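Our preliminary data section would be incomplete without showing what the modeling component actually yields. Below, a chain of 171 amino acids is followed by its predicted structure, encoded as tokens that our downstream tools consume directly.
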Amino acid sequence: AYAPIIGAILDAGLICTATLPCPAEMSASLHINGTGSSIVDTIVVCRKQRAAKSVIPCTASILKKLTTRLAESPTASIAISGGNSPKPMFELFAQSDLNWSRLHVFWVDERAVPPTDPRSNYKLALESWLGPAKVPEANIHRIRAEFLPERAALEYSLDLERHFGAGVPRF
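Predicted structure:
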């Protein structure tokens, strides 16, 4: 079984001020087009203020959760949001000594552009975190947004199913 973990920076300038458990009966949903919902058990609360100073505690909180998970299990999974807001967090991830070879990375969204496009969420994560931290390519589960949306959604749902098994994925 996978212990759910999700980290999300919701909008430019938002900072994480708390990490709250989300009991099953109050679980949040993360909708991925074509795949149904994904259950979330950790909510990262963000607010618009002092983003540069607060990215450090937010990143530390996520790294602590990943470290705890990896102490209990051979692998962990995380779903990351897109846009430019997570870049400072990704850069701090890249500097961390976490064993990134044991982490599987998924996206909650992607822009309909090729992976080489400057607007690609995958490209940003690859250049600022995944590449420098040497996350194995096999552990990077990107949305193939260079395909037509229907094909990209189908392929991503199949990738989720291969990794998590049938049913609703749990991060």
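The helical segments are 51-72, 87-95, 121-130, 149-164. The two ends are 10 Å apart (CA to CA). Preliminary results of this kind motivate Aim 1 of the renewal.
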